[in-house]
Write a structure and sequence with these properties.
138 residues, two-stranded antiparallel sheet
Length: 138
């Protein structure tokens, strides 16, 4: 199993929307590196749901429930992909970008090094640390 962090603007579609829907595809990724990360995802992987822009914080944990497939919102024949995700649980304490940046253990974390990338891998160690910071079990 691999771990990920996936960003979304809460004013467009947030954690509460995913919880209400119960399951959805993660669409709209139009960055080649972020799309390459989605292509690496497998059913059963877990991901943090990160509210970007104004909030900049981890708010929940999702499970990837499909293999990658063509993005239904993209132009036909494009290489953009999606995965289906479902909510597992909210974090008890949202973990802010400021919290992450203040901790030297995250100096090499992609969220810090490539802050504009919307889908980033999370190492096992970082996953455990972020879960602890969020008050949830890994």
């Amino acid at each position: 199993m691999a771990y990920w962090l996936m960003k979304q603007e809460p004013s467009e579609w947030g954690w509460d929307d995913l919880v209400t829907e119960g399951q959805s595809y993660w669409d709209g990724v139009r960055n080649h590196q972020a799309a390459a990360n989605i292509r690496k995802m497998e059913k059963g992987d877990k991901a943090f749901f990160y509210h970007s822009v104004d909030e900049k914080r981890i708010v929940g944990i999702m499970k990837v429930v499909s293999a990658p497939y063509p993005d239904p919102t993209a132009e036909e024949g494009s290489k953009w992909v999606v995965v289906d995700v479902k909510p597992l649980k909210p974090v008890k304490s949202p973990v802010t970008l400021a919290d992450v940046k203040a901790d030297d253990r995250f100096a090499e974390f992609a969220l810090v090094r490539q802050s504009r990338l919307s889908v980033v891998p999370v190492t096992d160690d970082h996953w455990a640390m972020l879960c602890e910071m969020g008050g949830v079990k890994p």
